[in-house]
Amino acid sequence: MGASLSLVPVLDYFARREFLAAGLRPNAATLPYPDGGAGATCTVHYWAPPGEPKLPPLLLVHGFGPRATWQWRCQVGPLSRHFHLVVPDLLGFGGSAYPSETAPPPSEATQASTLAALLDALPGMEGKRVAAAGTSYGGFVTYWLARAAGGGRVGPVVIASSDLLKTAADDRGFLKRAGEGWSGVDEILLPAEPAAMRKLIELASYRPPPRAMMPDFMLRDFIQKLFTDNRERLVHLLKGITVGTDKFQVTPISQDVLIIWGDHDQLFPLEKGFAVQRYAPTISAPVRALYFASVMTPCTHGHTDWLVLYQRCCHLQVSERHR
Asked: In this predicted structure, what is the pLDDT of residue 317?
């Protein structure tokens, strides 16, 4: 029985239902692939309400690994009452694809350029100022989009649990927190065995489910559906990440910025949030961005200026429920 039971389609169904209930509909756009040479194209799958915006537009950018519906399922309902949401799958995730056999993997800059092209292609969105929020890897992309597009096109900006100042020393610190027996960060971030999947859940969640609720057969199913079937593509995508290298130089941006961090984040510890804070402009976040923070998760939070700290939350504060 256990071997044939899969929760992945069930979770996918409920996540999609949240999006549909929020008035979002799935769609796809074929766009030029910035790194693919002349004639190269990519496909961007996204969720958005039909028609032109009647509310201020807000772009939600997911992190590495999950598709957009899994990452933002808790937020689209409340946010859809105040914003015209655009929720894409980044290139290589969910239903979005790029020419991986003939072109290099997308960097954060490439992902950002593609999102800018998507926004210009949507009804009534060309040239319209768009607020943007990204979590984890999506925060890297959101930062790059905001910097490249400028304040007249993108802003305000919300960056959640995104270590823009990540270095090799941070990877070593992550492995130390994970404990002995791990050869590299990739072994945990792209798990191939139940032990690695369980460790990833433990590190990403403030209160992970007890072991009895994470039997090996269930974890193997998640690994197969989310990682094994897509491993070659995910490894290719990891090679495109430039944060922590000379290609990702962090400089202050002109937009209003709200930084969100879980106070128990074990992937990107809280002190990195304060370090990132120093690179943001020293101005208060606007009211709408603060409203965004209030609906991100039921976890309790406090804030100092424009750095919001979620208490009893870890790296997945956009998904965690306060218990």
From this structure: 52
